[in-house]
Amino acid sequence: MSPARCTHELGDFMAKKHSKSHTLYGYYVRLDSLVDLARLSISIGSGGVHIDAIRQGKGYRLFKEGEKLEDTRLIYCVDVDSKDNVLVYNPSTDDEECMFKDSIPSNAEDYRKYKLPVLEITGKFVYTPRDKLSDHVPLVAVKGLDSFVRSIVTDTSGRTENIKLYSFFHNKQHVVGTFMSFKEGLRVFEYAVSDAKEKFSYLRYNYLSDSVEPCKNVAEKSMIYIKVINLAEPFPFFKSTK
Length: 242
Fold this sequence. Notes:
By secondary structure, this protein is mainly β.
């Protein structure tokens, strides 16, 4: 083989390898509602991050990047007919408030609300969509949602405010789980089954009574809260809760 041909073939090989290594795949996971997207985008007791939007037919798809599995990024999304520049979220009322505004509110009553800018992407989206999710995700079942929550709130690593629990119904069971229990980059989905028949927004823990209960707001400031993100359907890798 001549040096010129060898160099040419090596160049083609490196170009293909380089191109493949920079292909980013995304799998859309549909959320149950817009308020779940708002809840996903905040850190309890702190602030929030912006929400991305792309044109989807006559409306918009709003989304946030989620966990990265083997070679696919989960992208949590909800479709809306219209949007504005800011999504204002208030989890402190009896029922969560979530509404679009054309600008970030600055009056006194909006001081404690989360203001999430909506950034519309007009160019090509960075991820190549995948219709199917082939990435393997090990499942770890734990006994009892209360024990599951206690293991999270007593973790001394300081991750409680940012931890995300995902909730969905599968085979008539209410499943609540997270990717965040295992460390060192392992993508394991640990989950428990809830007795609750309805969806909820948060799980709160009371240190005084050592009790756990679902709720729809963070109005009681003396509690520890973990946000729950409701999905429109189960994760595709979730095959059985037995």
